[in-house]
Amino acid sequence: HQNNIHGHHQFANIAFKALFEKDPTALNEDLRQLVVDKATQFHYRYRPLNTFYYTGGRNKSYGYLDFLPAMRNFDLMVANRDTAIHKTVATGKLVNPDDSNLPKLDDVLLSRGANKFLSPADELKAFKIDPRFEVNCFASEEDFPEMACPIQMRWDKHGRLWVSTSVTYPHVYPGQKPCDKIIILEDTNQDGKADKCTTWADDLHIPLSFVLDGNGGVFCSEEPHLTHLTDTDGDGKMDHREIVFTGFGCEDSHHALHDFTWTPGGDLLFRESIFHNSQTETA
User: Fold this and answer.
1) End-to-end CA distance of the chain
2) pTM value?
3) 61: pLDDT confidence band, cut at 50, 70 and 90?
4) Strand partners, 129
5) Please, what sign has the CA dihedral across residues 207, 208, 213, 214?
6) Residues 12, 205, 77, CA angle at the centre, nearest 5°?
7) Residue 152: phi, psi to the nearest 5?
């Protein structure tokens, strides 16, 4: 079972009393946030995505990637937060981390080129359509900026289109936080085009794939985790995340857990692709 923040607090109090045979001092929330920040940056360094590109078989053939300099900066950010923690304890006053020593990441050449962005109208002109069919634009980034970088879509029983998006891909860079989304697109006037967009979740970590659980929640790929996301208060926005399994491989972020599907018997199936080594356990 995974503790929430209150469970961790209770466990910390019990462990402190068992170790030192006295009650712990009052919680310093500023200090705790510094420790959490340090642990977060260390996690990005210790359990990074795309290791196959900077220590594996593709570390020479993809010259446009700057993964190793990014890892160097994470090391520095961890050290900066460690310094801030010690200064905060020593002075009794909050000392924020100083990241002014971080080298700027070098500009890198796109060795493989980039796709040209087309407007919906120009993209439609480029289609070769069977004369028996008609293609219409249901939703676009021009109408809904929240839909930037869509990955997967799922229709629900109400006729709404759920879409996962990721601007974090291929991974988190130093100084950034995962800010990926699951949005819901609706056609409220039944004209065949979305006219309403709701952000259901907005702090996800590369939701490469997801599936609706049938009860208003979502099982989601957030490597190295498989998470279950729910809206507990019914306000139309995810407010609870549970890590169901962890330890999935993340050597190549676009090969992570994907293709979720339910069997008739209620089992959840999914796939994991090449380069990945997983050692999973319940969280």
Assistant:
1) 6
2) 0.84
3) low
4) none
5) positive
6) 65
7) -135, 155
